[in-house]
Amino acid sequence: MAGIVVVFDFDKTIIDCDSDNWVMDELGFTDLFNELLSTMPWNTLMDKMMGEIHSKARTIEDIVEVLKHTPIHPRVVPAIKTAHALGCDLRIVSDANLFFIETILEHLEIKECFSEINTNPGYVDEEGRLRITPCHDFNKYPYGCPLCPPNMCKGLVIERIQASVSNKKFIYLGDGSGDYCPTLKLGNRDYVMPRKSFPLWDLICRDPLLIKPEIHEWTDGEELEQTLLKLVHSIMTEEESNNSCLVSAAEDCKFQTISVAAHETFPHVLPVPQ
What we know:
The chain is of the alpha/beta class. About 45% of the residues lie in helices and about 15% in strands. The protein is globular and about 65 Å long. About 5% of the residues have low confidence.
C-alpha cells in the first residue's frame, strides 16, 4: 500500500454542489431554509428542515432520489477509483452528513474506496424521519476553534488521523473556509489541493507563508483528477527510489559484514620455533 493518505472534503469537492442546498432546492424548501438560516446554527437548521420535510409527507425515498441526481464532474469518480487502486488510503472529512454522503457514494459505487467518513451523523428514526446531529456536541463540549463552525472542527479530525498513521504523506482536497483549519495542521511533507477561487483558496492566498504543505490548485473535476494522480505518482516514485537506496545500502552492509566475518574465521598464523 502506498504511504499516502488522501483526505477529501465532500460538498463542492467530490460533488459539484452543496448537498444540503441541493436537497432543499430540489424538494422546494429553499425559501423556508433561507428564512430560518439566521436563527440557528446550520447543522441544527438542517435537522429542523428534515422535520419540516417529513411533516409535508415527503419520504426518505424522495430524499434518496434527489441525492441520486446530485451533480458531479465525470472525471471525479475515475480519479477516486484510480487513487484507491494505487493503494492510497482515502478518507472523507465533511460538514455535510452521513446519510447524504453514503447515499451518494453508494449510488456512484465508490463507497468501498473510502476507509473512513468523518462527518455529522445522519440516520432515519423509527418514524421514518431523517435526523441530523452535530459531529461534535458543542453544547456539552465546546472546543472553541475560531476557524471552524461549532459542530465540527476539521483540524481536530486531521490531528486524530495523523496520530493514527505513521510516516505517511497527506494530500488534502477542499474548497470551503472550514478546510482552512485542517490545512494549517499539515506539514511540509504534505500537499493541499484548494479549489481555485473558492474560500479555501482565498484564505491561503491572504498569507501563503502560513501554509506548510505544497499548494496545488484545481478548478474542476478534470484538473482535480490530473493534479491528484500526478501527485500520487510523484510520491510513489519517490518512495520507490528511497526504498531502492535502502535495499542497496543494506546489501552493501551485508557484503561488508560477510567479508569481515569470513576473514575472522581464518586460522591465526603461529610462530615457528627457531
